[in-house]
Design a protein that fits this description.
The protein has 244 residues and is mostly helical. The protein contains 13 helices and no strands. α7 (108-120) crosses α8. It is elongated and about 55 Å long.
Length: 244
Amino acid sequence: MPVVQALRSFVARVGGSNNNSNKKQDSKEKLRRTTSQSIVCTSSSAVIPFTPDFPSTSSSLASSTASRKSAPCPLVEPQSPEQYVAMCMARHITVHSKFFEAALEIDSPIIAIAMAYLVRTCETQDPSSSDTFFEALYLAWETEEDSVLGQQDIAEYFLGPYPTSSRAGVSRDQLRKERSEWRANLHKFMKGKDRLWKDLEYRTIIFHPEMERMLALLPTEHEVMTRKCTREIDDLFPPKQRAA
C-alpha cells in the first residue's frame, strides 16, 4: 500500500521507530515511575478560556513549532488537568468521528494511553489541538502495537491519501509535487510526535491503574469507547503489573 511504503521509507531514513527504543527501556527505570503520581500544571499564571483548535479539514497542519512549545496548560476552573484533557479528548472524538468509524483497530485503551500522554505533558503541549491529539494517538499505537494498521489510518486521515499515478489527467510534475508536499507534511507530523515523545522524557509505558483512571474520565457514549483490546488483558497487563 502506498501509505505503508511511505511510512516505512520515512522510518528507515530517520533510523527506525521509537517503538523498538521503548521496548529496550531499562526495567529499573520502569519500576521507578510511580503510576499514582499527581500531575499538576504550574506554567499557566492565568485561567485561559476553553478555545479548542479543531481544524475544518482533517489534513490541517496549522500549528507552528513555536506555538506548540509555548502553549500553556489551559485550565478552566475548577477543573483538574485530567478533567480538562478528558473534555478535549471527548471533543476530538466527536469532531473526528469519521476517523474512528473507519479505523476500527483504534480502541479505548489506545485512546486512554494517548490521553495519559497529554495529561503528563500539559505544560508543553496543547491538548485542544488536533495536531497534538493525532500525534498522541500515533505514539500510543507505536508504543503498544506491532502492526502499522493504526499508523496507516492516522496518516491517511490526517495527511490525506498518498498521491498515486492512478488519477487521470495528472502530469508527472504535478504528481511529483504532490508527493513531495505529502512527505513534507509527514515529516512535520513526525517531528511533532517526536517532540511529544521528548516531553514525556521517552517514557511511554502506561500501567494499568493509570489507564483505568483515564478511561473513567472519558465519555462512554461514543462507540469507539466500547472497543476492547484484540489481545487478552493478561498479555497486555500481567497480573503482577495490574496489582501495582
